[in-house]
Every structure is written in C-alpha cells, then in structure tokens.
Amino acid sequence: MHPVGVVGAGTMGAGIAQVAALAGHEVRLHDTRDDAANGAVDAVLHRLARAVDTGRLLADEAEDAAARLRAVRTVDDLAGCGLVIEAVVEDLAVKQALFAALEAICGPDTILATNTSSLSIDAIADGLRHPGRVAGMHFFNPAPVLPLVEVVSGTSTDPAVTDLLAETATAWGKTPVRAASTPGFIVNRVARPFYAEAFRMLSAGTVDAATADAMFRESGGFRMGPFELADLIGHDVNLAVGRSVWTAFGHDPRFEPSTLQAQLVAAGRLGRKTGRGIYVTDEPRPEPSTAAPVPPRDDAWAGDGPRDQTAAGAVHWQVGTADVRLRPSDGRTAAQLTGGGPATVVVADLALDYAGATRIGVAAPEHAPREHVDAVVGYLQGLGYAVTVLPDTPGLLVARTVAMLAAFAADAVDAGVASAADVDIAMRLGVNYPLGPYAWGAELGWDWVAGVLDALAADDDPRRYRVSPGLRARATVTEPVDELEGEP
Ligand code: NAD
C-alpha cells in the first residue's frame, strides 16, 4: 500500500491522517509548524487509545496504526507518496505555492488532493505541469467520524484520478460522492437555505429560535434544528461558508446570508465555542412555543387525518368539520385559502411524515374565530401531537425551508454539480438530513416545490425565491425529467 502524505496538521489534517493510518497506509504528516505536526500525532495517538479503552478498536489495530503515522519536518519528506492530501489554511496563494512545491518533489503519478471547502480546484491546479492529477478530496469535520467524502473534479482533472480517489475513500470506510468544482461543491451549496431561511424568519420576528428548532426536529424529522446546528458549527464558520458561496455566485440573492448572523459574529457570539451564540451554552434552552391543552370538540372530523399520512410526500390530505378545515401548506397562507369561503382553513406546516411526527405547526387567518383555532388545536392534541401555532406566513417554517432545499438540490443537479443520487447521499451523510432533498422534492411533487417558492416570491423577494427554468420544467411535466431527456 502506498504511503500517504498529509500537509497541514490542524483539525482536518490530523483527522485525515488518522483515517489513512487506520486504513493501513504509512502516513507522513507535515506542517510548517513542527509543534503542530507533533501535536497532531500525539492527538491521534490519544484518540486511538481512547477508542481502545471504549472497545471501539482492538489494541493491536491501534498500535499498528500508530506505528504507521509519523510527523515529517519538510515537504521533501513526502517524496515517494502515492497520494498527498493538502489540508492547510484556506488561502489560495498558500495552496498554490504548496502544490507547486509538491509537483517538484513528487513523481507525475502521485495524486495531489486538496481538502479545500470553498476554493476552485482549477485555481489551485493553475500553473502546474500536470493539473490532471489534482482533485478535491473534501472530508467533513470530524474526519474520523463523518462518513462523507466529496471527490471534486476540476475541468482538467483526469477521470482516472477521481476514480482512484473514490476507491480510496471507500477503502478507508468512507462514502464518496462525485462533484464538479463549483462554489460550495454539494453540501455547502445545497445546505444554505437550512440556515438562511431560519435566520430570515427569526429576523422578521416570525418565530423564536427554540420553537423553530423544535419544529425541525419534532416535525421535520431533522436531527438538529438550524439554530442549534449553527451554534455547534460556529456562526463564524457557517457565515464564512455562506458568504463565500454568495460571493462566488455574484451576490445572487438566493444565496444571501443573514445579517443577523453577521451581527452575532461581530458580537463574538460564535456558538458553543464561545459559550454563547443563539443560545447560552450552559443555560437551559427556552421552551418551544406549544399550545396549552384544549379540550377536543365532540364533532366528527371528516377526511384523512395527519396520523394516516405515512409517506414523506403526503401533502394532499384534508380533514375538517362544517366550520373549519385543516390541510398541509402549499405555500398559500391560511387567509388566502380561506378567502371568502364558509369554513376557516387552517394550514399545517410540513412534517417528514405526519404519522410519525410528534409536533405539528399550524397557522390560521389572523382574524379567524378563536374557537376555530381551538378546534384544530384540540383535534391535533387529541391525536397526540404537541401543537405550535405559527403566524400565517407563506410556507410557514419547515415547508418553505424544505421547498428551498429541494429547489437548491434540483438546481445543483441541473448545473452539473452532481447526480441527484449523489446530492441526496451527500446531504444525508454530510449534514444528517432525514431524506435527500432531491428525493424529498420528487416525493412532495415539483409542482408543490415550485408553488411554495412562487408564494414566497409574491410575498417576499422575487429574486431570492425565483423558480429556475429546470425546476419549472419539472413542475409542469408529469413524466420524470430523466426520461424526457432521453427522448429525441
Ligand atoms: P487549521 O487551521 O486547523 O489547520 C491548518 C494547518 O495548516 C495549521 O496547522 C497550519 O500551521 C498549517 N499550514 C499553514 N500553511 C501551511 C503550509 N504552507 N504548509 C504546511 N502546513 C501549513 O485548519 P482546518 O480547519 O484543519 O482546515 C484545513 C483545510 O480543510 C482548509 O482548506 C479548510 O477549508 C478545509 N476544511 C475544513 C473543515 C473544518 O470544519 N475545519 C472541514 C472541511 C474542510
């Protein structure tokens, strides 16, 4: 097995070195700061020892991996490596200088991979004699734990190189996805609305953070809500990624990050690492807004109720009595759906699947009779849900975010960033989404996705919520787009 060089012994380099050593490679770890490289080796050995103590690793596996890992003092010591992975600071000039030095040392067959999160592979390979051997191998933090690796091709990258990197990632126990070198690759591009929509609603006073996070977990099926996740990632890191993608897209309003998040960063409220972000780390979280118990009315509710809806794309059910009806959001507000009709229409926010959800968010027209709202709340509580009454805004909270995520996934596929399957794998493994956003969009129906965006465009910023031509085409055809593409 060929030796692997890792350059940059910070958070990512140390993690990548650990993964490669455990997979059986001799690993040479280099950093311009010797203490960083030695410290990273010590940190890896400590982690291996802990894995043995907790029964996750056999003692001889840890010893073998430790024996294969060493810090080296100069870049020259990387001569003879079959693969070198760069994980130095996110600075194009530094990376270009390093790759030029590596090219002078390593033979033409050595693959040079970069762990960059945001820089263009073409820009990093620019000026090299053999740019075909340069590709992205983008691990996620913590690299020893998270399974996803984005294997990123620049325009000059030799396909045999990305094939080898994907095989290597698999051999290291990771799941590779293929991406073209475009801003944010897959995860950092498609995930943007998860944070941006939540911050937009928080800024507008539509929802408080604890309620939003509870809705995403207990209704949307996400492992973490957007605010608690951004607190964990760090608002500085999250905002820097958002800004870099936004800048790379020429300040397209679709990608615009939140000014509220920028204010948090300016105030040093970076999240858990500073003890304070959206939440104060050591204080109990505020309780989500939950309707107080309402006794159910004893009239019959006709139609399919939410507990009957086991599918992720179930957004066409409706249940009601003579004077009040409940249906999932399609982007239109409860006031629009009620119109001048005889019954009050209450809209439900999207759930991953309504049968399994433990919380439902609902919105009624602003001037709806109190007893109509109570009737819905009592009915849903009777089915065992916690109920959150939300302001009557287009797409409420989860529906508008999932619609945007699905639209971003479709746009990434149309832009040739990755296949729909790889977009979905990346989002499930890279950021733990309960369902890939492309598959989710297809299940909800692309007409539903486009409808929610249209409603947001009419109410808010038409450029931010514009429906791309590819999404519009999906929304207006009934056949799967893949089949249409094959037709003459
Ligand atoms: P870090 O700051 O923890 O570590 C960077 C290391 O590189 C430092 O130890 C520094 O001394 C060293 N270094 C700087 N210039 C060097 C050079 N010319 N030669 C050798 N070593 C040099 O950074 P990190 O968080 O590990 O990120 C490294 C790379 O990985 C960046 O490109 C980043 O965008 C990317 N990345 C980071 C994350 C993350 O969550 N931290 C996730 C995925 C990718």
Helix run count? 20
Count of extended strands: 14
Could you say which small molecules are bound to this protein?
nicotinamide-adenine-dinucleotide
Strand content: 5-15%
Helix content bin = 40-55%
CATH architecture annotation name of the domain at 4-181: 3-Layer(aba) Sandwich
What's the story with the biggest beta sheet?
8 strands, mixed
Compute the CA-based radius of gyration. Answer: 25 Å
Highest-level CATH class of the domain at 4-181:
Alpha Beta
Which fold name corresponds to the CATH topology of the domain at 4-181?
Rossmann fold
Strand pairing plus helix content: what structural class? alpha/beta
State the end-to-end distance: 48 Å
The name of the CATH superfamily of the domain at 4-181 reads NAD(P)-binding Rossmann-like Domain
Q: Are there runs of 5+ residues with pLDDT below 50, and where?
A: 479-488
Average predicted local confidence, pLDDT: 95
Spatial order of the strands in the main sheet? Answer: 3-2-1-4-5-6-7-8
Tell the overall outline.
elongated
Describe it for me?
Among the domains are: 4-181, NAD(P)-binding Rossmann-like Domain (Rossmann fold, 3-Layer(aba) Sandwich); 188-274, N-(1-d-carboxylethyl)-l-norvaline Dehydrogenase, domain 2, CATH 1.10.1040.50. Helix content is 43%, strand content 12%. It contains 20 helices and 14 strands. The protein has helices at 11-22, 34-53, 59-68, 92-105, 121-125, 159-171, 187-190, 192-203, 209-218, 226-233, 235-248, 259-266, 334-338, 370-382, 398-414, 420-431, 437-444, 446-459, 469-476, 481-485, and strands at residues 4-7, 27-30, 69-72, 83-86, 111-114, 134-139, 148-153, 175-180, 302-303, 319-320, 324-328, 344-348, 359-363, 386-389. The strands form two sheets. The chain has an eight-stranded mixed sheet, sandwiched between helices. Helix 13 links the parallel strand 11 (324-328) and strand 12 (344-348). Helix 10 packs across helix 11 (235-248). The radius of gyration is 25 Å and the shape is elongated. The protein binds nicotinamide-adenine-dinucleotide (NAD). Nicotinamide-adenine-dinucleotide binds at residues 7-13, 30-33, 36, 87-90, 94, 98, 115-117, 139-141.
